[in-house]
Amino acid sequence: MEIDQWRREYLHGGLQRSDLSADPISQFDLWLQEVVKADISDPSAMCLSTADASGQPSQRIVLLKGFDARGFVFYTNLKSQKAWDITANPRVSLLFPWHFLDRQVIVRGQATLLDGAEADQYFASRPRESQIAAWASHQSDAIVSREVLEKQFETFQAQFEGQDVPRPEFWGGYRIVPHAVEFWQGRASRLHDRFVYRALDDGKWQIERLSP
């Protein structure tokens, strides 16, 4: 079968206005719990979209590390491509591609840098090997070979032997403060259900149904 004929019907159910929570964070939490119950790999994986100063977009998969009424949190090297993009243009988008439930969640918002104390707390909870890898990798920089990377890892492994690994000053986190969150539920015949929450000035959310 040719690629343009690959398709299937989306039959996992529908989404009605009466099903929705009053705010998108509560609705996201509800859907995330259902994803976790589905027992799939990387339920917190999300596609982060950024754009540099010229407008060139980039995308990559990162892991959600927390969320609450303030927004969605992830961590990274602060000298990576994504960090440079955010410095130039803090407007970003997140996509949670939960295809196995015929669902997507799209978050549009602004990235803000977390304070050092919050980054320290999360960094201390990471596996030791991941902490050392944060020191060893100059994320997004070109390297000659994998052997160079492994040598850097061994160097920092020896440097921090017998002591706690501190958080590098070039490593931290971002919180995506949302102004719009869309919940997409696939339906048969491509008549999908789409609802978007839009932030209002008074702190409340307006909910609209979108045409598929």
From TrEMBL:
EC number: 1.4.3.5
Protein residues bound to FMN: R60, I61, V62, L63, L64, K65, Y75, T76, K82, Q104, Q139, S140, W184, R194
Cofactor note: Binds 1 FMN per subunit.
Annotated GO MF terms: pyridoxamine phosphate oxidase activity
Domain of life: Bacteria
Domain Pyridoxamine 5'-phosphate oxidase N-terminal: 33-158
Signal peptide region: none
Listed InterPro entries: Pyridox_Oxase (IPR000659), Pyridox_Oxase_CS (IPR019740), Pyridox_Oxase_N (IPR011576), Pyridoxamine_oxidase_dimer_C (IPR019576), Split_barrel_FMN-bd (IPR012349)
Presence of the UniProt keyword Oxidoreductase in the record: yes
Catalytic activity: pyridoxine 5'-phosphate + O2 = pyridoxal 5'-phosphate + H2O2; pyridoxamine 5'-phosphate + O2 + H2O = pyridoxal 5'-phosphate + H2O2 + NH4(+)
Ranges for domain Pyridoxine 5'-phosphate oxidase dimerisation C-terminal: 171-212
Pathway: Cofactor metabolism; pyridoxal 5'-phosphate salvage; pyridoxal 5'-phosphate from pyridoxamine 5'-phosphate: step 1/1; Cofactor metabolism; pyridoxal 5'-phosphate salvage; pyridoxal 5'-phosphate from pyridoxine 5'-phosphate: step 1/1
Keywords: Flavoprotein, FMN, Oxidoreductase, Pyridoxine biosynthesis
Keyword Transit peptide: no
Residues annotated to bind substrate: K65, Y122, R126, S130, R190, L191, H192
Transmembrane segments: none
Pfam family name, one: PNPOx_N
Cofactor(s) needed by this chain: FMN
Job of this protein: Catalyzes the oxidation of either pyridoxine 5'-phosphate (PNP) or pyridoxamine 5'-phosphate (PMP) into pyridoxal 5'-phosphate (PLP).
UniProt family annotation: Belongs to the pyridoxamine 5'-phosphate oxidase family.
Oligomeric form and interacting partners: Homodimer.
Protein name (record): Pyridoxine/pyridoxamine 5'-phosphate oxidase
Species name: Microbulbifer celer
Gene: pdxH
